[in-house]
Amino acid sequence: MTTTSNNVGGCVDLVSQMQFELNRMSELFLSTVGELQRDAGPVPVNNEELIRPTTSYDSASRSKGFALELMQASTNMTLMISKLPTPMDAEQDQLARILDLQCRNIQLEKELEAEFQRAQQKLAQAQDLYGLLAEHELNSHMAMKQ
Known about the structure:
This protein is mostly helical. It folds into two domains: 1-41 and 60-84; 87-146. 83% of the residues lie in helices and 0% in strands. It contains three helices and no strands. The protein has helices spanning 3-39, 59-83, 87-145. α1 packs antiparallel against α2 (59-83).
C-alpha cells in the first residue's frame, strides 16, 4: 500500500482517539455538574435561616480537581486536532492517490490483456489438439469396424 493509505489509517485512529477524549470530557462535565448539584449547600428562600449540615466533603477543592481534569482533556483534544491534516493536504493526498490508482489500473489492464492473449492462444492450441484427437479416434474407430 502507499503512504497515503497509511495516513488515512492514522487519521482514522486519530479520530477514534478524539471521539474517546470527547466522551471522556462529556463524562467529566456531567460528573462535575451532577456531583456539584448533589453536594451543593442549601440556598435560603425568603430570608429564612439555614441550618448547615455538617459534611466533610469539600466541594471547592473537588470542583478545582474536576476543572483540572477537564482542562487536561481539553488540551489533549486541542493537540489531537492540531495533528489532523489540513483540508488542502487531504485534497492533494487524494489527488495523488487517484493518479497512483489510475496508473496502477492502466498497468493491470495491460497485464490482463497480455494474459488474455496468452490464454486465447492456449485455448486455440487446446481446440486444435482436441480436433486432432477426435479425428484420430474417429479414424481408429472406423478402421476397427472395417
